[in-house]
Amino acid sequence: MEYFPPALETLIEHFAKLPGIGGKTAQRLAFHVLTLPDADADAFADAIRGARQATALCSVCRNLTDGDLCAICRSDRRDPSVICVVADPRDVAAMERTREFSGRYHVLHGVLSPLRGVGPDDLEIKSLLERVAQGGVTEVIMATNPDTEGEATALYLSRLLRPFDVKITRLAYGIPVGSHLEFADDATLLRALEGRQEM
Amino acid sequence: MEYFPPALETLIEHFAKLPGIGGKTAQRLAFHVLTLPDADADAFADAIRGARQATALCSVCRNLTDGDLCAICRSDRRDPSVICVVADPRDVAAMERTREFSGRYHVLHGVLSPLRGVGPDDLEIKSLLERVAQGGVTEVIMATNPDTEGEATALYLSRLLRPFDVKITRLAYGIPVGSHLEFADDATLLRALEGRQEM
Protein backbone atom coordinates (compact mmCIF):
# COMPACT_ATOMS: atom_id res chain seq x y z
CA MET A 1 0.00 0.00 0.00
CA GLU A 2 1.15 3.52 -0.72
CA TYR A 3 1.10 5.76 2.29
CA PHE A 4 1.65 9.02 0.42
CA PRO A 5 0.04 10.54 -2.66
CA PRO A 6 1.60 9.16 -5.88
CA ALA A 7 3.24 12.46 -6.87
CA LEU A 8 4.97 12.62 -3.49
CA GLU A 9 6.05 8.97 -3.75
CA THR A 10 7.58 9.81 -7.14
CA LEU A 11 9.60 12.66 -5.66
CA ILE A 12 10.73 10.46 -2.76
CA GLU A 13 11.90 7.83 -5.26
CA HIS A 14 13.92 10.40 -7.18
CA PHE A 15 15.68 11.54 -4.02
CA ALA A 16 16.26 7.93 -2.96
CA LYS A 17 18.10 7.27 -6.23
CA LEU A 18 20.76 9.87 -5.35
CA PRO A 19 24.01 8.44 -3.98
CA GLY A 20 24.13 8.07 -0.19
CA ILE A 21 20.45 9.00 0.26
CA GLY A 22 18.42 6.27 1.96
CA GLY A 23 14.67 5.89 2.16
CA LYS A 24 14.16 7.89 5.35
CA THR A 25 16.34 10.76 4.18
CA ALA A 26 14.58 10.79 0.80
CA GLN A 27 11.26 11.16 2.65
CA ARG A 28 12.63 14.03 4.73
CA LEU A 29 13.96 15.84 1.67
CA ALA A 30 10.74 15.37 -0.31
CA PHE A 31 8.67 16.67 2.60
CA HIS A 32 10.96 19.66 2.85
CA VAL A 33 10.39 20.40 -0.84
CA LEU A 34 6.64 20.40 -0.17
CA THR A 35 7.13 23.18 2.36
CA LEU A 36 9.28 25.38 0.09
CA PRO A 37 7.88 28.63 -1.30
CA ASP A 38 6.80 28.17 -4.93
CA ALA A 39 9.63 30.33 -6.27
CA ASP A 40 12.28 28.28 -4.46
CA ALA A 41 10.87 24.97 -5.66
CA ASP A 42 10.66 26.20 -9.25
CA ALA A 43 14.23 27.48 -9.02
CA PHE A 44 15.34 24.07 -7.73
CA ALA A 45 13.65 22.28 -10.62
CA ASP A 46 15.14 24.76 -13.09
CA ALA A 47 18.58 24.34 -11.53
CA ILE A 48 18.48 20.59 -12.21
CA ARG A 49 17.84 21.19 -15.89
CA GLY A 50 20.05 24.26 -16.08
CA ALA A 51 23.13 22.73 -14.53
CA ARG A 52 23.07 19.93 -17.04
CA GLN A 53 22.41 22.11 -20.06
CA ALA A 54 24.94 24.79 -19.16
CA THR A 55 27.75 22.50 -18.08
CA ALA A 56 30.29 21.12 -20.54
CA LEU A 57 33.87 19.84 -20.37
CA CYS A 58 36.79 22.19 -21.05
CA SER A 59 38.23 21.32 -24.46
CA VAL A 60 41.74 21.43 -23.02
CA CYS A 61 41.72 20.07 -19.46
CA ARG A 62 38.28 18.35 -19.29
CA ASN A 63 37.33 20.29 -16.17
CA LEU A 64 33.72 21.42 -15.96
CA THR A 65 32.98 24.69 -17.70
CA ASP A 66 30.10 26.73 -19.07
CA GLY A 67 31.98 27.65 -22.24
CA ASP A 68 34.63 26.09 -24.44
CA LEU A 69 37.52 26.66 -22.02
CA CYS A 70 37.30 26.48 -18.24
CA ALA A 71 38.12 29.53 -16.10
CA ILE A 72 41.58 28.15 -15.30
CA CYS A 73 42.55 27.37 -18.89
CA ARG A 74 41.23 30.81 -19.91
CA SER A 75 43.35 32.62 -17.33
CA ASP A 76 46.75 33.85 -18.54
CA ARG A 77 47.91 34.01 -14.93
CA ARG A 78 48.00 30.22 -14.76
CA ASP A 79 51.27 28.57 -15.75
CA PRO A 80 50.61 26.23 -18.71
CA SER A 81 53.91 24.39 -18.16
CA VAL A 82 52.72 22.61 -14.99
CA ILE A 83 49.79 20.18 -15.21
CA CYS A 84 48.16 18.70 -12.12
CA VAL A 85 46.36 15.45 -12.94
CA VAL A 86 43.24 14.75 -10.86
CA ALA A 87 40.54 12.12 -11.05
CA ASP A 88 37.50 14.34 -10.62
CA PRO A 89 36.41 17.98 -11.04
CA ARG A 90 35.83 18.08 -7.28
CA ASP A 91 39.53 17.47 -6.80
CA VAL A 92 40.22 20.63 -8.82
CA ALA A 93 38.08 22.51 -6.31
CA ALA A 94 40.01 20.92 -3.43
CA MET A 95 43.39 21.87 -4.94
CA GLU A 96 42.19 25.41 -5.68
CA ARG A 97 41.25 25.88 -2.04
CA THR A 98 44.95 25.65 -1.14
CA ARG A 99 45.44 28.88 -3.16
CA GLU A 100 49.01 27.73 -3.80
CA PHE A 101 48.87 25.93 -7.12
CA SER A 102 49.32 28.27 -10.07
CA GLY A 103 49.53 25.69 -12.87
CA ARG A 104 46.75 24.07 -14.82
CA TYR A 105 44.84 20.81 -14.46
CA HIS A 106 43.89 17.71 -16.31
CA VAL A 107 40.77 15.87 -15.16
CA LEU A 108 40.76 12.13 -15.85
CA HIS A 109 37.09 11.62 -14.90
CA GLY A 110 37.83 8.46 -12.99
CA VAL A 111 40.67 6.11 -12.19
CA LEU A 112 41.69 2.78 -13.66
CA SER A 113 39.63 0.03 -12.07
CA PRO A 114 39.76 -3.44 -13.60
CA LEU A 115 37.17 -4.62 -11.09
CA ARG A 116 34.63 -2.05 -12.24
CA GLY A 117 35.65 -2.40 -15.87
CA VAL A 118 37.26 1.05 -16.17
CA GLY A 119 40.19 0.91 -18.59
CA PRO A 120 42.51 3.57 -20.06
CA ASP A 121 40.10 4.31 -22.91
CA ASP A 122 37.37 5.26 -20.43
CA LEU A 123 39.51 8.03 -18.94
CA GLU A 124 40.82 11.32 -20.34
CA ILE A 125 44.29 9.86 -20.84
CA LYS A 126 44.63 10.33 -24.59
CA SER A 127 43.87 14.03 -24.24
CA LEU A 128 46.54 14.32 -21.53
CA LEU A 129 49.18 12.67 -23.71
CA GLU A 130 48.25 14.97 -26.59
CA ARG A 131 48.66 18.01 -24.36
CA VAL A 132 52.09 16.88 -23.20
CA ALA A 133 53.11 15.88 -26.74
CA GLN A 134 52.34 19.41 -27.97
CA GLY A 135 55.26 20.60 -25.85
CA GLY A 136 55.64 23.47 -23.38
CA VAL A 137 54.92 21.20 -20.39
CA THR A 138 57.76 20.83 -17.89
CA GLU A 139 56.06 19.06 -14.97
CA VAL A 140 53.10 16.75 -14.49
CA ILE A 141 51.93 16.38 -10.88
CA MET A 142 49.99 13.22 -10.10
CA ALA A 143 47.22 14.13 -7.66
CA THR A 144 45.01 11.08 -7.81
CA ASN A 145 43.68 9.75 -4.51
CA PRO A 146 46.16 7.92 -2.27
CA ASP A 147 44.32 4.60 -2.56
CA THR A 148 45.07 1.49 -4.58
CA GLU A 149 43.27 2.56 -7.74
CA GLY A 150 44.57 6.13 -7.57
CA GLU A 151 48.11 4.81 -7.09
CA ALA A 152 47.84 2.37 -9.97
CA THR A 153 46.49 5.10 -12.24
CA ALA A 154 49.33 7.48 -11.31
CA LEU A 155 51.87 4.74 -11.92
CA TYR A 156 50.32 3.84 -15.26
CA LEU A 157 50.33 7.48 -16.39
CA SER A 158 53.90 8.02 -15.24
CA ARG A 159 55.03 5.17 -17.50
CA LEU A 160 53.14 6.59 -20.46
CA LEU A 161 54.68 10.00 -19.86
CA ARG A 162 58.24 8.78 -19.43
CA PRO A 163 59.13 9.12 -23.17
CA PHE A 164 58.36 12.86 -22.95
CA ASP A 165 60.85 15.28 -21.48
CA VAL A 166 58.79 16.19 -18.41
CA LYS A 167 59.30 15.91 -14.67
CA ILE A 168 56.68 13.61 -13.14
CA THR A 169 55.86 14.16 -9.47
CA ARG A 170 53.38 12.85 -6.93
CA LEU A 171 51.67 14.66 -4.04
CA ALA A 172 53.49 13.95 -0.77
CA TYR A 173 52.13 11.39 1.66
CA GLY A 174 52.27 11.97 5.39
CA ILE A 175 50.33 12.63 8.54
CA PRO A 176 47.40 15.01 7.98
CA VAL A 177 47.88 18.48 9.48
CA GLY A 178 46.10 18.81 12.82
CA SER A 179 45.79 15.09 13.41
CA HIS A 180 47.36 12.94 16.12
CA LEU A 181 50.21 10.50 15.59
CA GLU A 182 48.49 7.86 17.67
CA PHE A 183 45.54 7.81 15.28
CA ALA A 184 47.62 7.60 12.10
CA ASP A 185 47.49 4.22 10.40
CA ASP A 186 50.71 2.27 9.90
CA ALA A 187 50.92 2.81 6.14
CA THR A 188 50.56 6.58 6.49
CA LEU A 189 53.09 6.75 9.31
CA LEU A 190 55.57 4.69 7.30
CA ARG A 191 55.17 7.05 4.33
CA ALA A 192 55.58 10.05 6.61
CA LEU A 193 58.80 8.58 7.98
CA GLU A 194 60.15 7.76 4.52
CA GLY A 195 59.31 11.23 3.28
CA ARG A 196 60.77 13.05 6.31
CA GLN A 197 62.32 16.41 5.54
CA GLU A 198 65.15 18.37 7.10
CA MET A 199 64.04 21.20 9.38
CA MET B 1 36.55 32.27 -6.57
CA GLU B 2 34.05 29.89 -8.03
CA TYR B 3 35.48 26.50 -8.83
CA PHE B 4 32.49 25.22 -10.78
CA PRO B 5 30.40 26.70 -13.59
CA PRO B 6 27.68 29.03 -12.20
CA ALA B 7 24.79 26.75 -13.20
CA LEU B 8 26.39 23.90 -11.26
CA GLU B 9 27.06 26.15 -8.26
CA THR B 10 23.36 27.07 -8.32
CA LEU B 11 22.32 23.43 -8.22
CA ILE B 12 24.78 22.72 -5.40
CA GLU B 13 23.29 25.62 -3.42
CA HIS B 14 19.78 24.24 -3.86
CA PHE B 15 20.83 20.85 -2.55
CA ALA B 16 22.73 22.47 0.32
CA LYS B 17 19.53 24.21 1.46
CA LEU B 18 17.82 20.86 2.06
CA PRO B 19 17.73 19.75 5.70
CA GLY B 20 20.70 17.64 6.82
CA ILE B 21 22.58 18.13 3.54
CA GLY B 22 25.99 19.74 4.03
CA GLY B 23 28.24 21.34 1.44
CA LYS B 24 30.16 18.19 0.50
CA THR B 25 27.01 16.10 0.16
CA ALA B 26 25.36 18.83 -1.92
CA GLN B 27 28.35 18.72 -4.27
CA ARG B 28 28.12 14.94 -4.55
CA LEU B 29 24.38 15.06 -5.29
CA ALA B 30 24.74 17.84 -7.87
CA PHE B 31 27.53 15.95 -9.63
CA HIS B 32 25.37 12.87 -9.68
CA VAL B 33 22.57 14.82 -11.33
CA LEU B 34 25.03 15.86 -14.05
CA THR B 35 25.64 12.20 -14.85
CA LEU B 36 21.94 11.26 -15.04
CA PRO B 37 20.35 10.41 -18.41
CA ASP B 38 18.34 13.39 -19.70
CA ALA B 39 15.02 11.65 -19.16
CA ASP B 40 15.79 10.92 -15.50
CA ALA B 41 16.89 14.47 -14.79
CA ASP B 42 13.80 15.92 -16.46
CA ALA B 43 11.62 13.51 -14.48
CA PHE B 44 13.35 14.63 -11.26
CA ALA B 45 12.72 18.30 -12.06
CA ASP B 46 9.11 17.53 -12.97
CA ALA B 47 8.66 15.53 -9.76
CA ILE B 48 9.64 18.55 -7.68
CA ARG B 49 6.95 20.66 -9.32
CA GLY B 50 4.47 17.80 -9.56
CA ALA B 51 4.63 16.70 -5.94
CA ARG B 52 3.81 20.22 -4.80
CA GLN B 53 1.02 20.81 -7.26
CA ALA B 54 -0.65 17.43 -6.82
CA THR B 55 -0.42 17.24 -3.04
CA ALA B 56 -3.11 18.67 -0.77
CA LEU B 57 -4.35 18.03 2.76
CA CYS B 58 -7.29 15.69 3.37
CA SER B 59 -10.31 17.79 4.28
CA VAL B 60 -11.09 15.46 7.17
CA CYS B 61 -7.86 14.23 8.74
CA ARG B 62 -5.27 16.67 7.25
CA ASN B 63 -3.13 13.81 5.98
CA LEU B 64 -1.50 14.32 2.57
CA THR B 65 -3.70 13.44 -0.37
CA ASP B 66 -4.02 14.01 -4.09
CA GLY B 67 -7.77 14.55 -3.89
CA ASP B 68 -10.25 15.94 -1.39
CA LEU B 69 -10.11 12.92 0.94
CA CYS B 70 -7.04 10.81 1.68
CA ALA B 71 -6.99 7.10 0.84
CA ILE B 72 -7.65 6.19 4.49
CA CYS B 73 -10.61 8.53 4.96
CA ARG B 74 -12.00 7.32 1.61
CA SER B 75 -11.82 3.67 2.64
CA ASP B 76 -14.99 2.22 4.18
CA ARG B 77 -12.89 -0.58 5.71
CA ARG B 78 -11.37 1.89 8.17
CA ASP B 79 -13.21 2.34 11.45
CA PRO B 80 -14.24 6.01 11.80
CA SER B 81 -14.87 5.65 15.54
CA VAL B 82 -11.15 5.41 16.40
CA ILE B 83 -8.88 8.36 15.66
CA CYS B 84 -5.11 8.13 15.99
CA VAL B 85 -3.57 11.58 16.48
CA VAL B 86 -0.07 12.02 15.00
CA ALA B 87 2.18 15.01 14.55
CA ASP B 88 3.26 14.42 10.96
CA PRO B 89 2.14 12.60 7.78
CA ARG B 90 5.28 10.48 8.06
CA ASP B 91 3.94 9.14 11.35
CA VAL B 92 0.84 7.94 9.48
CA ALA B 93 3.17 5.95 7.23
CA ALA B 94 4.96 4.53 10.28
CA MET B 95 1.68 3.47 11.92
CA GLU B 96 0.39 1.96 8.67
CA ARG B 97 3.48 -0.21 8.42
CA THR B 98 2.33 -2.06 11.55
CA ARG B 99 -0.71 -3.24 9.49
CA GLU B 100 -2.61 -3.48 12.76
CA PHE B 101 -4.38 -0.17 13.06
CA SER B 102 -7.76 -0.15 11.36
CA GLY B 103 -9.04 3.24 12.52
CA ARG B 104 -8.45 6.65 11.03
CA TYR B 105 -5.95 9.42 11.68
CA HIS B 106 -5.69 13.06 12.50
CA VAL B 107 -2.49 14.84 11.53
CA LEU B 108 -1.60 17.83 13.70
CA HIS B 109 1.24 19.07 11.45
CA GLY B 110 3.52 19.77 14.37
CA VAL B 111 3.53 19.79 18.14
CA LEU B 112 3.12 22.57 20.69
CA SER B 113 6.44 24.29 21.16
CA PRO B 114 6.52 27.57 23.08
CA LEU B 115 10.26 27.86 22.37
CA ARG B 116 9.72 27.79 18.63
CA GLY B 117 6.55 29.86 18.85
CA VAL B 118 4.17 27.03 17.88
CA GLY B 119 0.84 27.46 19.67
CA PRO B 120 -2.50 25.59 19.46
CA ASP B 121 -3.70 27.79 16.58
CA ASP B 122 -0.73 26.69 14.45
CA LEU B 123 -1.76 23.04 14.66
CA GLU B 124 -4.76 21.12 13.30
CA ILE B 125 -6.40 21.05 16.72
CA LYS B 126 -9.62 22.88 15.92
CA SER B 127 -10.35 20.43 13.10
CA LEU B 128 -9.78 17.52 15.51
CA LEU B 129 -12.20 18.94 18.07
CA GLU B 130 -14.80 19.49 15.36
CA ARG B 131 -14.44 15.87 14.23
CA VAL B 132 -14.93 14.59 17.77
CA ALA B 133 -17.80 17.04 18.41
CA GLN B 134 -19.67 15.68 15.37
CA GLY B 135 -20.03 12.40 17.30
CA GLY B 136 -19.40 8.78 16.33
CA VAL B 137 -15.90 8.80 17.81
CA THR B 138 -15.33 6.42 20.71
CA GLU B 139 -11.56 6.51 21.14
CA VAL B 140 -8.76 8.98 20.45
CA ILE B 141 -5.25 7.47 20.53
CA MET B 142 -2.44 9.94 21.18
CA ALA B 143 0.52 8.92 19.04
CA THR B 144 2.71 11.99 19.25
CA ASN B 145 6.44 11.42 19.75
CA PRO B 146 7.54 10.32 23.24
CA ASP B 147 9.54 13.51 23.84
CA THR B 148 8.77 16.59 25.92
CA GLU B 149 6.89 18.48 23.23
CA GLY B 150 5.00 15.41 22.03
CA GLU B 151 4.02 14.61 25.62
CA ALA B 152 2.88 18.15 26.32
CA THR B 153 0.81 18.21 23.15
CA ALA B 154 -0.86 14.89 24.00
CA LEU B 155 -1.62 16.14 27.52
CA TYR B 156 -3.02 19.42 26.18
CA LEU B 157 -5.26 17.59 23.70
CA SER B 158 -6.45 15.09 26.29
CA ARG B 159 -7.68 18.00 28.44
CA LEU B 160 -9.51 19.58 25.52
CA LEU B 161 -11.14 16.24 24.69
CA ARG B 162 -12.19 15.44 28.25
CA PRO B 163 -15.64 17.13 27.91
CA PHE B 164 -16.50 14.73 25.07
CA ASP B 165 -17.58 11.19 25.75
CA VAL B 166 -14.51 9.50 24.28
CA LYS B 167 -11.83 7.20 25.61
CA ILE B 168 -8.41 8.88 25.39
CA THR B 169 -5.39 6.58 25.18
CA ARG B 170 -1.66 6.91 24.64
CA LEU B 171 0.77 4.59 22.84
CA ALA B 172 2.58 2.36 25.36
CA TYR B 173 6.11 3.17 26.40
CA GLY B 174 8.67 0.47 26.91
CA ILE B 175 11.84 -1.15 25.69
CA PRO B 176 12.04 -1.31 21.88
CA VAL B 177 11.64 -4.79 20.43
CA GLY B 178 14.99 -6.35 19.59
CA SER B 179 17.01 -3.99 21.77
CA HIS B 180 19.09 -4.79 24.84
CA LEU B 181 18.12 -3.90 28.40
CA GLU B 182 21.61 -2.66 29.16
CA PHE B 183 21.33 0.00 26.45
CA ALA B 184 17.88 1.24 27.50
CA ASP B 185 17.91 4.66 29.13
CA ASP B 186 16.60 5.03 32.67
CA ALA B 187 13.40 6.85 31.72
CA THR B 188 12.43 4.18 29.19
CA LEU B 189 13.22 1.37 31.60
CA LEU B 190 11.16 3.03 34.32
CA ARG B 191 8.22 3.37 31.93
CA ALA B 192 8.62 -0.26 30.87
CA LEU B 193 8.54 -1.34 34.52
CA GLU B 194 5.50 0.80 35.33
CA GLY B 195 3.68 -0.51 32.27
CA ARG B 196 4.55 -4.19 32.86
CA GLN B 197 1.91 -6.65 31.81
CA GLU B 198 0.90 -10.06 33.07
CA MET B 199 2.16 -12.96 30.98
Q: Briefly, what is this?
A:
Chain A is built from eight helices and six strands, in the order αααββαβαβαβαβα. Chain A has 199 residues and is α/β, with parallel strands linked by helices. The longest helix of chain A has 17 residues.
Q: Would you write up a description of this structure?
A:
The structure is a homodimer of 199-residue chains. The first copy, chain A, is α/β, with parallel strands linked by helices and 199 residues long. The first copy, chain A, has a domain of 96 residues: Dna Topoisomerase Vi A Subunit, Chain: A, domain 2 (3-Layer(aba) Sandwich). Chain A has eight helices and six strands, in the order αααββαβαβαβαβα. Chain A has a four-stranded parallel beta sheet with strand order 4-3-5-6. In chain A, strands 1-2 form a two-stranded antiparallel ribbon. In chain A, strand 3, helix 5 and strand 4 form a beta-alpha-beta unit. In chain A, helix 1 crosses helix 2. The longest helix of chain A is centred in the first third of the chain and has 17 residues. The model of chain A has no long low-confidence stretch (mean pLDDT 89).
